[in-house]
């Protein structure tokens, strides 16, 4: 039994078809534009993986349509100014952006000052060590209370000031390390942006008395990011090897750590990833099927070109004596299948039941991704007539 022909989108998409996966090729022409991005970087926040670099967002979305943009419905193009058009903001939004810009600027200045102070302290320490090493030590009477140096500053005060400076510097670097790096990159790439500010319509009298004016945004404060699901992130890291996932402190996570953390964060991660990997390997673009009551939905070529063709339902086939396997949802019921069939017919989609057969395994086997090669997948096309 074959699937129906997918329905193309009526409106022509401005996005051209690109490579199906974000991997590099030596002689292929698809990857010339993104040849410098062999490995992408994402940050795990507990629920998803965030990619914040604009070029990496564009590459991941165009080559395989991975992830969901945080501020755009489809292609991540929030904040991109059209030709001969200005971005329109109301007065409240503009004032809020100015506050964010001022805060970011202060953080950048504080970080630069602290770095300069740290470099000065390191240089003075090196000079002091060099001078003490060159001079010979001779016994002399020293006051136990204070030792005066550097124009009357005491050693005790100097130590206290160094301790305070060190603690403040560590605190600042821990809290704003990622935000400052993002701010620097944004300030280098797009420092100035013209926006059209329109007065708020708080009162009825102001509805006909608008006072628009043009302002220049010195620092871009609203930045769009790309959210990758756990299945997409592990597929890019494990199957393709093109994504390096880090925690919020900037520490890279290994594949084994990713497997354990994702499995702990999402109880049905294993069966979802098995199904995701299976359909991705067959050439489908896999997206979340929550809107249609399923686990996934399948696109041909990508969402900009065709409507979703299939709704995927995952059913676990678990051995009777299996341990440490989550099966909270259980098997599909007739009521659920009948409901999904009616909805699928309404939106012109097929239903595929993806039966995942679990292997015999122990708790130790479940904690390693190599257990994936022991899973078996079967497809069942479900039709009412």
Spell out the key features of this protein.
Trna Endonuclease, Chain: A, domain 1; 8 helices; MutS, DNA mismatch repair protein, domain I; tRNA_splic; 15 strands; 3 domains; nuclease; tRNA_endonuc-like_dom_sf; 385 residues; EC 4.6.1.16; tRNA-intron lyase; alpha+beta
Question: Could you walk me through the main structural features you see in this protein, from its secondary elements to its overall organization?
Answer:
Keywords: Endonuclease, Hydrolase, Lyase, Nuclease, tRNA processing. Pfam families: tRNA_int_endo (PF01974). Strand 11 (285-288) and strand 12 form a beta hairpin. The chain has three domains: 36-78 and 224-266, tRNA intron endonuclease, N-terminal domain (MutS, DNA mismatch repair protein, domain I), CATH 3.40.1170; 87-126 and 154-217, no CATH class; 267-385, 3-Layer(aba) Sandwich (Trna Endonuclease, Chain: A, domain 1), CATH 3.40.1350. It is built from eight helices and 15 strands. The protein is of the alpha+beta class. The protein has helices at residues 54-62, 91-134, 155-189, 230-239, 255-265, 269-281, 334-346, 363-366, and strands at 40-44, 49-51, 68-69, 87-90, 148-149, 153-154, 193-198, 213-217, 226-228, 243-246, 285-288, 296-299, 310-317, 350-357, 376-382. Helix content is 36%, strand content 17%. Helix 4 runs antiparallel to helix 5 (255-265). The strands form four sheets. Strands 3-9-2-1-10 form a five-stranded mixed sheet. It has a five-stranded mixed sheet with strand order 11-12-13-14-15.
